[in-house]
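Sample 1 of the test manifest.
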Amino acid sequence: MGFFSKTLDRLRQGLTRTREVLVEGATGIRSMLLGRRLDEQLITELEKALLTADVGVMATAKLIDGIRADHKAGKLTRGEDVLDYMKGELKAMWPEQDRRLRFASAGTPTVILVTGINGAGKTTSIAKLCAMLRKQEKQVLLAACDTFRAGAVRQLEIWGERLGVEVIKGQQGGDPAAVAFDACKAALARNADVLIVDTAGRLHTQDPLMRQLGKIRSVLARQIPGAPHETILVLDATSGQNALRQAEEFGRAMTASAELPGGLTGIFLAKLDGTAKGGIVVAIRSATNIPVKFVGVGETPDDIEPFDPDGFVEALFAA
Amino acid sequence: MFERLSDGFSSVFRRLSGKGEISESNVREAMEDVRKALLEADVHVDVVNDFTQGVMDDAVGREVTKSLKPGEEMIGIVHDRLVEFLGGVPTDDPSKIVQPADGVLRVSPGPTIVMMCGLQGSGKTTTCGKLAGYLKKRGRSVLLVAADLQRPAAVEQLHTVADSVQRDLPGGAQVSFYSEPDKVAAYGKAVGVAVQVCKRGVEFARGKGIDTVILDTAGRLHINDSLMDELNQINKTVHPHQIFLVTDAMTGQDAVNSAKAFHQKLEVDGIVLTKFDSDTRGGAAISVKHVTGAPIKFIGVGEKLENLEDFVPQRIAGRILGMGDVVSLVEKAREQVSDEEAEKLQEKMAKGEMTMDDFLKQLRTLRRMGPLKQLLGLLPGVGSALKDVHIDDKQLDRVEAIVHSMTPGERKKPDGIDMSRRKRIARGSGTDPNEVGQLGKQFTTVSKLAKQMSGLSAMNRVKAVKELGEGGMEGMLPGVGGLPGFGGMGGKGKPSTVGSGFKGRFKKRR
């Protein structure tokens, strides 16, 4: 435990402050279930609560159908049973082993490629990853491959200065793949433990930009064996069902060629400190195979936590 | 989705026909699909329930006539209700679909003060730039004030944006920039400082006689009391004439909570929906509009600073129901093809004089508009059919290569390409003689079709394209046969000409 306690606290605090703001009837699933007998009425309320958390029509239907079936079979009779059932179902989606960060073998820099749509929170999330790795006494290098957005390189540089980490950059408007190339050389030359590559935000519908991402990836793969060891999609916890498309499209862009399979290796769920529950990751997990690795819960570099399904499910049901 | 809805309604109504009136129980069944569609589009659950109830009340009691397509008619009702919900006026008159927007109010004496606010990453800074460009084009001078003192490099970003609006966007008015870089601090350390920066920014604008001031505030969570209070302070100190809430069109259910919180604190005057160029269905628009009651003023439709458009309710209504977005398609086409060019091509096609060169030109235009699949998805009814079809844009590379390997004479008269020419072209383009032959055949079909289509209305063209697509999806050039339709649509000038047929599908029963 402990992992998510901070999140829970924040979430609870946030919710008390904004209780009056919340839409009527959107009380937590937990309080809704406890001490009640399971019936159609309760199932309908449960369905609504899951939909409100952005779990999505398909994934919600799957969960609800399961509950209905077990209810008919007499396996579920009380609200508590349902809570346990849902926890079991959701937790089983995220087994332990696939949430850890995958490191390169000793002597090779671990390359983490960070992608996502505009405004998802890539740069801030990178600062958080960076702070976390620094605490593990790793030597980190940042690559400023967002050469497109005004101020993006400077934003990463400021984080670099604050965290005491070197940033490899190129020309504003230059080729991001060239920056990636330079960064790989620098990471090898300086014997860095980890190289984190920031990329420009792009909508998954922008084909040329998605191809550019594939190019960055293949540059990394050519320069450092096994790179990128992690390809992270930063996802805004407030996103709706379109995030599923994002996960699919970014995954596709990252598996451009047969020699370089890979796809996305994980999700960084950013901005979970608001009132959004990030239920979209349930939808994503049931449609694709991408695990959630980290969550962002605030504005400072220390506001990062490893994703913990227990805590996530608790938070999903808390209010 | 549109097909699914339409089929769902049709089957319910088929059972109903001859039974007299629409009753609540039969409509409820059909409305379940509408409900799903809205939820998948991210409309908030409560709003969905309100909405579907409203539509049911509207429908119950109506007579089931012998209309051939009661399903589509029902969707027509849903569509119109959605338009109303979004603040539009449903109309059968296509020229009224694009309603004049009131844009940004102007006060006298100036400066008009506009405050932008929203969550982190919603797109405030970019939108500030776009709005400045919008005003510049209309002859209004703008001062962009950097009031985001929290996010690293936010001030620099706005500065760059301001410079590029001034340098690159059309319009005679001056766009300038105001900041106090020394006030920048780490997150949470400079709360409240922005209030004074805004105040001095406004005074600066007043002194210079600038028309409009846009305040770019820091992104903040709606539950962060101290930061929300800062916005309130700015509001009380400089009294903005317009407060715009910037919302990501991809937001999910939580859009309701954040919009409500911002609105309670600030009384939002308008909403700007950003990132609308993604393939989101944009249901958040409905939720936000519903909880704030404020009009949606603009939508952001691209990364470039000129990509800001006035909001048209019909567009989002169509998208949410998965009916495609013909208006977007026409706009995309208009970006690439000048009216004059399109007119010329139209004439050529009508006379059956289209050449391979024209074809190549169209192909390139089409490709500049975006990936083929995405474009086809904008056509009503095509989106769902394409869901699992993989369209490889690389096929188009091959087509281009084939045309490039033809002599000018061959391009003018592809009928005259015999077997030996076919082999030569295949060698030159690295393709197969069969592919060359196939392209020739398709070209002939397309030009014939183009000749016929030039007599059709826009909607019938879309239909023809659709039928072509359904028949030839596995063909070498999926959907490209529809090109003549695109050219024509762009050339007719107003998007509304397309709307005529588009709306015609949903004629209200009298």
